[in-house]
Amino acid sequence: MSNADTLTSPARRRGGGVGDLLLSELALLFRRRRTWALLGALALIPVLLAVAVRLSGSGGGPSFVGDIAGNGLFTGFAAITVAVPLFLPLTVGVVAGDTIAGEASLGTLRYLLITPAGRIRLLLVKFAVAAAFCLAAALTVVVAGLLIGLALFPVGPVTLLSGTEIPAIDAVGRALLIAVHVAISLVGLTAIGVFISTLTDVPVGAMAATVVLSITAQILGSLSQLSALHPYLFSAHWFGFGDLLRDPISWASFGDNVVLQLGYAVVFGSLAMGRFVTRDILS
Amino acid sequence: MTSSGLAVETRGLTKRFGRHEAVSSLDLSVPTGSVFGFLGPNGSGKTTTIRMLLALAAPSAGTITVLGSEMPKRSASVLPRVGALVEGPGFYPFLSGAANLTRFDAAEPGTSSRTRSARVAEALARVGLSAAAAKKVGSYSLGMKQRLGIAVALLSPRDLIVLDEPTNGLDPQGTREVRSLIRGLNADGTTVLVSSHLLAEIEQLCTHAAVMRAGRLVAQGGLDELRGATAAIEIVTPDLDLAREVLARFGLDATADETSTGDSTPRLDAPLPDGVLPEDLVVELVAADVRVRGVAVRRPSLEDRFVELTGEGFDVER
């Protein structure tokens, strides 16, 4: 316990690896009841959809919902289409808005920084874990949809938008690919949420602001007068996953989306870093 | 350890929030190996100073040296050697005590994951929380959270431990345990900086102290130095003039206590220089037929000094 021990102690290596902190952060997120409540609510979307179709038959509603009765695999596609505009941004807003502000409001932020977790290191890990949540959320919707569809409806080969028919197992692969596309689509919103989270000590405020921005972007995206702006909205490719249902797959929209979301991550990541690195932690 | 022998040194340290100056040109010197009491009423700038020492807040002006390195520039290499409890404990209420410690230990770069659970168990044992390790922190009492906060500071061996109001919310047993914990750490060579407004605490524990008032340092030094070393003797007697003559022979300049009321016996007060023994004075007084009804030797307590320096009132000054 003497000073000399501290300097030579094998327990203390130099260097700033992120591995242990990243694992700890993931454990923290997925040990929270709130996280499971969010994922549970997302899983409920395809379940409600499938049960409603099962009970009422295929009459009424958008055609993609009616298709569920014919092929259970469509439940996954239908559910993600329903979840993209509101439910997914809502859960992502909660997780991203909580990243820094949540730690500040618990009083744990100062202890992490004294430890010292390092401000840049902590921010990167927080962002990475929030992005991991995006993937978990999108996968939850799609996988829950495939499972409930499998349970309630017949399953067979799927006819793609380009008219080709693919076997059921390939359709499952396409569904998972769509989940990845949607998860990437949410990275920009996550970066915005993390940035807002560095501005405040009130997590609910950061969550609400993030969700409001996601809705605003979609409203702007629906105004044809602003069409010049549309390619630059972070929500531009939220429904671009139709291209993944063609044969051969059209990757243009997928690639554009990756570039766009990376751009948002860099811009708002830099803003978050600029703010967080210089900020006085008074919580 | 450092060339200057100081674990913490600040020069002209100032922190402004807008137009409000929370800390004004502070020159703090915490000797290496000391238990340093950091005193001051609420709102006097203690916690703001501690936040700056730990690189949580940036100074508006001035320099900070912690363990020989400049802060906040060198915080990545300095902070692993520093353990701290700042402005109350902060934990994840949905995790157990042990899981919370594991989280903070994992956040520290370069700690070994193999020995992590052993470190956590040892830190819990040192603050007497082993039995509550698996309980959720949300169900902890304030005192238990406070102990867990101290456990975070003890996860790795440290050269400096900063404890901001460590006995807040603790029962008398807990307070005693914290005190013996601090003594134990200090005996191992760790410098301990304790902020408190509980003077009895500091007086029992510390070797050095600093007193803040309204963002400024009003006194700093060894404890005896701070207290004021000179004692005073008080003699209760109806024979004031005679007694004063006797005391003058010893070179004591006595003054009659004017505040004494009619029904009580008058008193003489005099500063008692080193080398003059009170028993000699009494023998001499009695030999001179002074009717001595009471004698008392007083050393000013730290509390007297504290109140003298920081004022009586409860009010936050700014």
Question: Secondary structure elements and their pairing?
Answer:
The complex is a heterodimer of chains A (283) and B (318).
Chain A: H1 3-8, H2 19-30, H3 33-56, H4 63-66, H5 74-83, H6 87-106, H7 108-114, H8 119-152, E1 158-159, E2 165-166, H9 168-185, H10 187-199, H11 203-222, H12 252-278
Antiparallel strand pairs in A: 1-2
Chain B: E1 6-17, E2 20-26, E3 29-31, E4 35-39, H1 46-53, E5 61-66, E6 69-71, H2 75-78, E7 82-85, H3 97-107, H4 116-126, H5 142-153, E8 160-164, H6 172-187, E9 191-196, H7 199-205, E10 208-213, E11 216-222, H8 223-227, E12 231-236, H9 240-249, E13 255-256, E14 267-272, H10 278-287, E15 294-298, H11 302-310
Parallel strand pairs in B: 4-9, 4-10, 7-8, 8-9
Antiparallel strand pairs in B: 1-2, 1-3, 1-5, 5-6, 10-11, 12-14, 12-15, 13-14
Short description:
The complex is a heterodimer of chains A (283) and B (318). With 283 residues, chain A is mainly alpha-helical.
The top-level CATH class of the largest domain in chain B is: Alpha Beta
Biggest pleated sheet of chain A: 2 strands, antiparallel
Please give the count of helices of chain B.
Answer: 11
- Strand sequence of the main sheet of chain A, in spatial order? 1-2
What is the subunit organization of this protein?
heterodimer
Give unreliable regions of chain B as ranges: none
Whole-number count of domains of chain A: 1
Helix-strand pattern of chain B: EEEEHEEHEHHHEHEHEEHEHEEHEH
Secondary structure: number of strands of chain B: 15
Biggest interface between chains? A-B, 42 and 46 residues
CATH topology of the largest domain in chain B, by name, is: Rossmann fold
- Alpha-beta classification of chain B: alpha/beta
Q: Tally the helices of chain A.
A: 12
| Helix-strand category of chain A | mainly alpha
* End-to-end separation of chain A: 31 Å
Rg of chain A, Cα atoms, Å: 21 Å
Distance between the termini of chain B: 39 Å
State the shape of chain A.
globular
Listing every helix as H and every strand as E from the N terminus to the C terminus, the arrangement of chain A reads HHHHHHHHEEHHHH
